[in-house]
Write a structure and sequence with these properties.
about 325 residues; alpha+beta; eight-stranded antiparallel sheet; 9 helices; disordered N terminus; disordered C terminus
């Protein structure tokens, strides 16, 4: 069961491990920079060597997904699609094909709020150098942003673009998917208590020493503070925020979440946190709801089974879905 806890003191990490493990439990953890973010694994195992091997297997899996789906590495399958699919069908692995197909399902569900072709405009932004495209550049490339331009052939496992200029980027779903495949690896190895996180996407298995895992929701304007804490068991949680990759110019915050209909960063929300059963779903929905805004986004959340949300709007006010409101002992934490 989910319940919100009162605001906690500032914490450097989003994952708040608030309870000490049993003295007899062998908790192991490791962290590495993969997929352009911090990947963390924490688990309990009776055999320390087997536990360390399980953690290493997760890190290897994260690197494998990155080698398959990174849009920044020219040798990946996804990069090959972006280079060639406007000219001809591109045969890809079934794994990548299926994730692209799943992405298009989310596009249909959200009426295009989730759209992997956002990259057709998104590649024009350079957040490290604080560079944004001109209005003319956005308007020139915006017609290429439409998930319907992606044509899939299940029989041949091929991807083709319907027009020139289309690019895809799985940044709104790939990390959640990688968390899911990593959890599957841990379960196959007999791990029954674990946490895997990749940036804003996390999934937990079981509990932590007899108590829930506690995952903090970051204050969007203060990196060292949490605005609420969620106790979770056997659940996934994803947060999309305007603070992950951004720059400011002339009083405007340009961040990496783009509205596919405009090619610009939405400004109505600061962050969206989605709780569900799997990371692929929560990752895609956190992006989708951010683009949709508070009213439409929360309406979508309420229509989906076993999905909950915590949304922070542009004024800093916190909103949460009805399932969290009904949870016992759930005081409403307020933004400072």
């Amino acid at each position: 069961m989910l319940r919100l806890l009162p605001r906690v003191p500032p914490a450097a990490a989003v994952i708040a491990m608030l309870f000490a493990p049993s003295a007899h439990a062998q908790w192991l953890s490791d962290e590495d920079a993969i997929m352009g973010t911090a990947v963390r694994v924490e688990l309990w195992h009776e055999d320390a060597d087997a536990g360390r091997a399980a953690i290493a297997a997760v890190m290897d899996e994260m690197r494998r997904i990155d080698r398959l789906m990174s849009p920044f590495k020219p040798e990946t399958e996804l990069s090959r699609i972006n280079r060639e699919a406007a000219r001809k069908p591109v045969a890809v692995s079934r794994e990548l094909f299926d994730l692209i197909a799943r992405s298009l399902e989310f596009s249909t569900l959200t009426d295009g709020a989730f759209d992997i072709t956002f990259s057709s405009v998104g590649y024009l932004y350079d957040y490290r150098r604080a560079r944004k495209p001109t209005e003319a550049q956005i308007q020139r490339m915006l017609p290429a942003v439409n998930y319907r331009h992606v044509r899939l052939d299940p029989a041949k496992s091929t991807v083709r673009f319907a027009r020139d200029g289309v690019r895809i980027d799985l940044g709104g779903i790939a990390k959640g998917y990688a968390v899911d495949t990593s959890i599957a690896i841990l379960k196959q190895r007999g791990v029954r208590q674990a946490l895997v996180s990749a940036g804003g996407d996390s999934r937990v298995v079981g509990d932590r020493g007899g108590r829930p895992w506690h995952v903090g929701i970051r204050d969007p304007r203060h990196a060292d503070a949490s605005v609420a804490v969620l106790p979770l068991s056997d659940a996934a949680i994803s947060t999309s925020g305007d603070y992950e990759r951004y720059f400011e110019a002339d009083g405007v915050r340009y961040h990496h979440i783009l509205n596919p209909k405009t090619g610009r960063s939405p400004s109505a929300l600061r962050s969206v946190t989605i709780i569900g059963d799997d990371g692929t779903t929560t990752d895609a929905l956190s992006t989708s709801v951010f683009v949709m805004g508070l009213d439409a986004g929360m309406k979508l959340v309420e229509s989906l089974p076993d999905i909950e949300a915590v949304i922070i709007d542009a004024s800093g006010k916190l909103h949460y879905s009805s399932g969290l409101q009904r949870a016992p002992d759930a005081p409403r934490p307020n933004m400072p």
